[in-house]
Amino acid sequence: MKIILIICIIIVLVVLFLTLLSTNKAYKYEHTIDPIEPTKNEKDPAEEEKR
């Protein structure tokens, strides 16, 4: 019975460690955002000021 309990505790600790490692790696990831290009229907604000 003690062997099963020790194995279960080891499995829980390994899963906890991997979860923390994965979460830490995810928070360090830098997201990049592509600039939005204006479509034909949208007006450029710089052109509006020139008029």
UniProtKB/TrEMBL annotation:
Protein name (database record): YtzI protein
Which NCBIfam families does this UniProt record tie to the protein?
small_YtzI
